[in-house]
Amino acid sequence: MSHSSPVPDVPGGATRDGRGETPNERLDRNWNELLQELRVIQTGTQILTGFLLAAVFQSRFEDLDAFQRDIYLVLVATSVLTTLVGLAPVSLHRVLFRKHAKSRIIRYTDYFVQATLAGVAITVAGIGLLIFDLVLGRAWGVAFAVFILVVVALLWIVVPRIIRRSA
Predict the structure, then answer these.
(1) Rounded CA separation 145/128 (Å)
(2) From the centroid of its chain, how far is CA 21?
(3) Which of 9, 62, 111, 124 is 20 to 30 A (C-alpha) from 51?
(4) Which residues contact 31 (CB under 8 A, 6 or more apart)?
(5) Helix axis angle, 138-153 relative to 102-135, nearest 10°?
(6) What does residue 110 show for φ and ψ, rounded to 5 degrees?
(7) pTM higher than 0.85, yes or no?
(8) Angle CA(30)–CA(31)–CA(32) in degrees, nearest 5?
C-alpha cells in the first residue's frame, strides 16, 4: 500500500506515514484540523459581515453613488453567504452525528472550507474596491481589488503548491 494510504498496512492498525495512527485516529485528527481552520475563518467572516451591516447606518453612506451602493450590496450578500457556508459544516455534523459518516463529513467540510476561503477573497477584494473607490476614485478601486485577488492567488494557491511540491 502507499505511504499516504489511510488504510492500515502494519500490525496494530497503524499506517506507514510516520504518524502511527489508525484510520479512525486520522479521521479525528483531520476533523480537528478542519475545525481549527473553521474557527479562524468564521471569526473573520463574522467580523467583516458585522462591519458591513453596520456601514449602512453611517452618515457617509448616503454619499455613495449607484455603483458604490451596488458594490456594497454585493459585499453584504457575499459576506453573509460566506458566513453561512462557513457554518454549514456544523449543520452537516449535526445531521450525520453518530451515523458513522466522519469521512464524508470531513470530505464535504473540506469543500465548505474552500468555498468559504473563496468567499473571503471576493469579500476582501470587494471591500478594497469600495474603500479605494470612495477615497481615490474608481480606477484605484478596481486596481486595488485586482491587486488583492493576485495576492490571494499567490498566497493561497501558488505558494502552498510550491511548498507541497518541494516537500
Answers:
(1) 6
(2) 28
(3) 111
(4) 102, 105, 106, 109
(5) 150
(6) -60, -45
(7) no
(8) 90
Domains (ranges, CATH) in the chain? 11-166 (1.20.140)
Name the residue with cell 491587486: 147
In whole angstroms, give the CA distance from residue 162 to residue 45.
27
Which residues 6+ apart lie within 8 Å of 50 measured at CB? none
H/E stretch holding 159? helix 159-166
Q: How far apart are CA 71 and CA 48, in angstroms?
A: 15
pLDDT band at 133 (very low <50, low <70, confident <90, very high): very high
Half-sphere exposure in the Cβ direction for 107 (13 Å, CA): 5
What gap in Å lies between CA 20 and CA 110, rounded to an integer? Answer: 23
Q: Which cell is 111 given?
A: 469543500
User: At 132, which helix (H) or strand (E)?
Assistant: helix 102-135
Q: pLDDT of 81-109, one tens digit each?
A: 999 999 999 999 999 988 988 999 999 99
Q: Residue 50 has which C-alpha cell?
A: 458585522
